[in-house]
Design brief:
The protein is built from six helices and three strands, in the order H-H-H-E-H-H-E-E-H. It is mostly helical. Strands 1-3-2 form a three-stranded antiparallel beta sheet. Helix 2 crosses helix 6 and helix 3 crosses helix 4.
Length: 134
């Protein structure tokens, strides 16, 4: 009687090819999106923060990190670089010195108004090539 080793059994799971294809699709989408965003002198994380702050009066760092799917440690550096570019500002609340609100500056709003629609149009070009089944 042969015994199937756990590694052999795990590597033969029928869903693994689907996982590989999902990973390939995500990597291709990410590379396509990132290349376009970088043309605007933004990193993908910076773009995510700007897009997340759009149509808000600002968000606290914790909420911003959760909505932009960026870890707290990474978010601080992203915000610092966006402040250097004068696209966001950071404000500590007087009533709660531990709460920091991040807002788009007028320049940041201009970048959002220009870059977000252009990026969505860029992504739409790719998705328009797919049929409903794909």
């Amino acid at each position: 009687m042969s015994v199937v080793a756990p590694i052999d059994q795990a590597s033969n799971e029928p869903f693994l090819p689907v996982v590989r294809e999902l990973a390939r699709a995500y990597q291709a989408f990410s590379a396509y999106s990132e290349a376009h965003v970088r043309q605007f002198d933004l990193t993908p994380a910076q773009f995510d923060v700007i897009a997340t702050l759009g149509n808000t009066n600002g968000l606290c760092m914790g909420e911003l990190g959760g909505k932009a799917l960026i870890t707290k440690g990474t978010l601080t550096g992203v915000i610092d670089r966006l402040i250097q570019k004068q696209l966001v500002c950071r404000e500590t609340l007087l009533e709660n010195r531990r709460s920091v609100i991040v807002q788009l500056t007028p320049e940041g709003q201009q970048v959002l108004d220009r870059v977000f629609p252009a990026h969505i149009a860029h992504l739409k070009e790719r998705f328009d090539k797919l049929d409903a089944l794909e």
